[in-house]
Structure formats: structure tokens, C-alpha cells
Amino acid sequence: MVKKRILVIDDEVDLSELITLLLKKEPFEVFYVSNLLEAKIQINSIISDIVILDYILPDGSGLEFFRNNKLLLSESMVIFMTADSSPKLHAEALESGIDFYLPKPFDVWSLREIIMKIPINTY
Predict the structure, then answer these.
(1) Residue ranges of the chain whose pLDDT lies below 70
(2) Which helix (H) or strand (E) holds 14?
(3) What is the phi/psi pair of residue 15, to 5°?
(4) Are the CB atoms for 23 and 112 separated by under 8 Å?
(5) What is the DSSP string of 38-99?
(6) What is the pLDDT of residue 123?
(7) Which domains does the chain have, with CATH numbers?
């Protein structure tokens, strides 16, 4: 069985562990990094079907990271999560090409439903 590859980029350890535990029960291969430097290394080495990207990270903005790495992320569906609920950021993220906008806090089961609807990449 082919597994969906998911990269979680978030510095909130508890949330990331919860997401990882939930997703590993499914046919997913989950990778987790806590900063943008590690994320850059990861996206250069593995193409993920899905990237779950936080907005505020210790070494920069997840949205800027997305904009600067669009080519490397072009094969991935990107779920952008943030505690910033401003309509301006929501619009800016979607205009930048983010596929899904998920405001924090959220129900991890809602995240799972989004992920289950995303097809697996075929290379």
C-alpha cells in the first residue's frame, strides 16, 4: 500500500505529537520538524504529498517560507495553520497559493478529514 507522505512543520511540540500520533494510525508516513531550517532540508530531500505548515516559527514566518519555496512545494498540498485569525492573513495566505487555511485552535479530527480527501502524489 502506498502511504501519503506528510511533513509537519510546527514548533508546538504537544500539538505536533498529537497530529503525528493521529496520522500514523492511518496509511501515512509522517515527518516532523520544528523550524524552517530543518524544513528546508526536509523539502529538499523528500517530496511530501501534504505539508502542514505553522505561521509563526522560531526562525521565521511559515508564509514567507512557503513563498520562497513554492517550486520545491509545488507537488505538495499545503495546510497553513495559525492562531492569527485576521481576515487579512487568511486572504494573503490563500492568494499566495496555500491550499487550506486552518485556524488554531482546531479539532485534529477536522485536520484528518482534510488530509483524507487529498490524493496521493504519483511520480
Answers:
(1) 1, 121-123
(2) helix 13-24
(3) -65, -45
(4) yes
(5) HHHHHHHH---SEEEEESEETTEEHHHHHHHTTTTTTTSEEEEEES---HHHHHHHHHHT-S
(6) 47
(7) 4-117 (3.40.50.2300)
